[in-house]
Protein 1
Amino acid sequence: MTETAKSLSQQNRKQLVALLVGIIILFFVCLLPFRLMALWETFFPNDSVLQVGAESYLNIIYFCRLLVYVNSAGNPIIYNLVSTKFRRAFQKVLRLYCCCCRKRLVLNRQAISVTSSHGTRLTTMSHYTAIRQEQQDTCRRVQDTCRTAHAV
């Protein structure tokens, strides 16, 4: 193995370890209160809930539930911060499905297709024009949905 391959392998291993440590810490920090709450409800009598108070008890439950959601939302953030492969793949997916990015991608493909042969260019341009029209229709529907939601 060459030196560059060894250093690349070592860098990938460090990224993997950092990723796993981050995911595990987030998991325990976010799910520990939920598990403690479940243990409390299981092993302590129902009178202990009355001692805490109904409002405080519900606030604790809502906080525990929020932390479970934070755990799920935090995983992709940690992946993005640590993994360059995840970052590249995520950017690729965004470019494919984002309205604004996809429109640019379609326009770039049309410009590239002009250099092809005449028959291919017409087929390619009509295909990407149909995709662009479909994408614009989808964006309009999403905007209309957002306007309707804000009006209500």
Protein 2
Amino acid sequence: MPVKPFQRESHEEYEEPEFSPDLKAWFNSLESDLSFLMKFTGICPANCSRKTLEKTGNKTIQNYRLSGNCHSLPFDLEFQLLEMQSEEGISAAVTDLSIITESDENCDISKIMSRAEEEGNLLLFFRAFSNFAQWCKHRKCTFLHFKVVC
């Protein structure tokens, strides 16, 4: 028996899902916050994926992949997040952090990237890479200025 392609009988049958006003407001607030953070830090995430590797009663291990740009310098991150639940609350730790940057000036920042990887310190990576990318942008503008003037 041949399979018929799905076709709607009429446009009236399909209705867009309705979201509560609170959910719409929350989503708009998140978009606004993300836009502010991207302008403030220069970090623009492009892709993010999460995969749960292990989940037991009080322990969860998830693998994250994040890629994007920071002031036009690309980066890729991969790490595991270990979450432990106890009576005191939930604790989380970053493990197996791997950082890939595609910058010509990579040698200037490789030591601090290695340190961030060893310590599993995402904050160190984002702070250092943001500052580094911003200064690379300033350096390029300065060189262009002198190239035009001379």
Protein 3
Amino acid sequence: MTSVAFLLLDKVHAIVLLFLFLLSLQCTYIEIEQVPKTHAVVLSRPSWLWGAEMGANEHGVCVANEAIVTREPASESEALLGMDLVR
């Protein structure tokens, strides 16, 4: 009985992973492909956008977003924000 439940659980996980792999991910302004494997994270994010100000993952890697001032003109096309990259 345990092996049957374990096998069924594996199939469920396989279906979920396949589903997640095929999905695209809607970021703040653009859509990108979802990666096949993700890690657990703790994030601090504003409610008005998809990205995050700062966060840490299950492996202890910490990252944060910082605004910079530049004289270069911004691109006319939409792209990933720094906050999207943090997430």
